[in-house]
Amino acid sequence: MGLRCGIVGLPNVGKSTLFNAISNAKAESANYPFCTIEPNVGVITVPDERLQILEELVNPQRVLPTVIEFVDIAGLVKGASKGEGLGNKFLANIREVDAIIHVVRCFEDPNIVHVAGKVDPISDKEIIDTELQLKDLESIEKMMIKVQRSAKAGDAKAKKELASLEKYKNHLEQGLNARSLDATEDDKETVSELNLLTDKPVIYAANVDENSMNDGNEFSKALAEHVKNENAQVVLISASIEAQIAELTDPEEKEMFLAEYGLKESGLNKLIRASYELLDLITYFTAGVKEVRAWTIGKGWKAPAAAGVIHSDFEKGFIRAEVIKLKDYQEYKTEAKIKEAGKMAVEGKDYVVQDGDIMHFRFNV
Question: Does the global pTM surpass 0.90?
């Protein structure tokens, strides 16, 4: 399963600088709004030291990490929900992503113009929220018009759907995001086809100055306090520093650069980790002489569903899964010795795949 994250925010908050730093695709970065007119898509590999361990043990012909797509969506402005600043087009692009990375400016720089004239992360965040909420309200109200006809005619299902839609409408009208609504499964099912923008999981990327990358600053702390009840993560990044890290190709140089700033990992790695945690994703591996490969699945998935990520036939004809733990691979070095030691587990259809499992699937179609 592919993971697709949309990078959004007001103009001149550092979206395109961040995007350039974390992907091979290049978005034009300039000191004026709307320098990004079409969404730019960058596919980047997910760093995972477990792949390196397996590569050394198995010596495969190739190694394939899992990937994340980052979509740089042009800067939204007040009035986007009504089409301002090409808003309708950009909002449609957000609808297609799995999660939103909302870049919020948390630094002062007189050389970079702020679209509102001053740095105010709470106000910036609320402008974007309002535009997304207004677009969701529009979607809800359109659906309500359709459902009301059937409800008035006495359709019991339509009446339930109308009640769910009213719930979302009232919530959004209070300036609240759909994701914070205490919704039932029936409520969620009713609006599922609408793909509501404010129902998508969010990571707030607080773009700070280089001196605030470890502990944050007054702006990032105010943002974290403001969103603490949103079930969202706040990740500290410095887009300008990420741009410098991206230029380093030697792993040792990169490590030394990070150490200079007291960082254990890059902002990109933090964003990737936060994305996986936010969406409840884990990684399992397949390992053989042809390839060692990482696969992304949802936490709690059972073995047949995990096999289906490789090919639908694997899920349809699933017989069993042979599972090895990485620590056992490290200890016994080869599959043959792992089997001899009784450390290869044979699991059936009800096995819940664990993060880091190394798996072989047996199937018949």
Answer: no
